[in-house]
Amino acid sequence: MRHLLATEGLDPDLATAVLDTADELKRTLLGREVRKLPTLRGRTVITLFYENSTRTRVSFEIAGKWMSADVVNVSAGGSSVGKGESLRDTALTLAAAGADCVIIRHSASGAAHRLAGWLAEAGTAVVNAGDGTHEHPTQALLDAATLRERLGGLKDRRVAIVGDVLHSRVARSNIHLLASLGAEVVLVAPPTLLPARVAELPVTVSSELDAELPAVDAVMVLRVQAERMHGGFFPSAREYSIAYGLNEARLRLLPEHAVVLHPGPMMRGMEISSAVADAPVSAITEQVRNGVHVRMAVLYHLLATDGGEQ
Question: Residues that bind L-aspartate, according to the entry (predicted)?
């Protein structure tokens, strides 16, 4: 694997290999007082974030350090970007300084692909940690890892993705990954929060959350991305919560084995109630834990193995 830029087109065998590696790493580190492996000693990993992040940035940093890589964090606000430096020049600077891998989060869709093109000659790997409303592949991988752990597998499982699909890179990455791994995906959202070309995606679509819940194995609740909204996509936060919020009453509609996911940060009381977010059915904390092992696995496949491009 040369880069990880998207789940659309990602070979399902490669995706499964990454998930299997994450499982193996998790078992290897279980119970160890010192969670440190020498796998990436001598490698330099740089996180380049142009947008705010807690879970993704921290888990990539921990993942790199647990594998003995040197991890350097670069924030746009504290770098030469604040002086007007272009993304291309920043990328070439990092490569020249010795970066083996650049993990980028950017507000522009396609930024990670552009970065990979600019760094091709340097041989620097690129990981997309979220680009605009396009994709967030490692989030989808950690979601898949969590579902495999809770449900025993993904094939023929029915996963409902609920809420602001239109603005969600998490939804896009999950749609492509889950479908490629054999799951059935149903999008549950108001028509105003669905992509224009939703008919071309490997999904079914519904606007009735209560009707879908009894037949799903998992519910992925999305954050309402108000910062990306320009105009009225729903009447009010209260009405959105009534129609699409996952609350205790709706929790009772789910099968006993069902799992609740949320990529975070959560808007408690609107998208999901605290009673659901903190209930045993919720795997939200496990998503964060699995995120470290999945991102370790991604770095392993990028920097410690020989493989073709992706």
Answer: 83, 169, 223
